[in-house]
Fold Ubiquinone/menaquinone biosynthesis C-methylase UbiE.
Amino acid sequence: MQKALLDDSQPNGIGPGSHDEASYALGYSKHELRRLALQGAFIRNLTEDFLRRAGLARGMQVLDLGSGVGDVSLIAGQLVGPSGAVLGVDRSIEAIETAEKRVTEAGQCHWVRFAAAELDDFDPDKKFDAIIGRLILMYLPDPATTLRRLADHLRPGGILAFQEMAMPSVRSVPDGSEFRRCRRWILETFERGGFEVDMGPKLHTAFLEAGLSAPQMIAAGRVEAGPQSFVYEYVAETLRSLLPLMERLGIAWAEEVQPDTLADRLRAEATGNSACIMPPPLVGAWTRLEVPLNEK
Ligand SMILES: C[S@@+](CC[C@H](N)C(=O)[O-])C[C@H]1O[C@@H](n2cnc3c(N)ncnc32)[C@H](O)[C@@H]1O
């Protein structure tokens, strides 16, 4: 079922600028929009726990950076409820259209909205109680500068809360040759594409460089095993989205990756070895802005 859902690689419309996999490793295919929603379901609980811990609560006004197809905005929308509001920002117009449909289906369209913008040009005319994001800072050339600039839009006492991956910590125990190749392809493509594979542990430094106080931090991850797990599709479909950049960088080619059979190969290897797969942990960091940064 998941494979059928993902079986479409048509490019979609991109928002306020022209972007390709050079500026966003996973690209903007319809397949990627569906993969994002499946990933969102896979890690939903980890993000909900994190946002509760960070202090998101009823009635808050929240800004969600790099909102994609709306998964984090939907969680925030549930936590703040109709007396609050969530604004998701993303550069992809099609991602936003999908996100809008999803919040309507979830009955949250009166208080969860979206705007198409490049984060570095985004200049909201209001203040927020919380600025949040998941899997966005790793794509920005200078995350600390973006955090610092957007923190000006936080009310005193407002929350900054971000969740990012520690990608090199992905493991299979015991290891397997198919899994090892996938791990290498994914890490090398992100790294050579210029994206930060270890943004999770680097959140501490990014917050400090932004002039924020040292964040509280926590890591959370799924631990997967057995033939029913979604983890094999997760790895295979991530590679399918990365393929255009991977080929351009000369890291691997479709003939070698064989994305159509990859999930089944990974499943057969893992179940044959009774392996346990630990996808990359999500590292969460949060802090409160007690004094506006321009008064520090
Ligand atoms: C990996 S997705 C994460 C989406 C969502 N936060 C989630 O966790 O499901 C990253 C999103 O950030 C957006 N993005 C990346 N760089 C951006 C930028 N400079 N300005 C606006 N959006 C950006 C992409 O379009 C993409 O939708």
Observations:
- The pocket of S-adenosylmethionine is lined by residues 24, 36, 40, 66-68, 71-72, 90-92, 95, 118-119, 134-136, 139-140 (CB under 6 Å).
- Residues 1-18 have pLDDT under 50 and may be disordered.
- The CA atoms of residues 243 and 254 lie 7 Å apart.
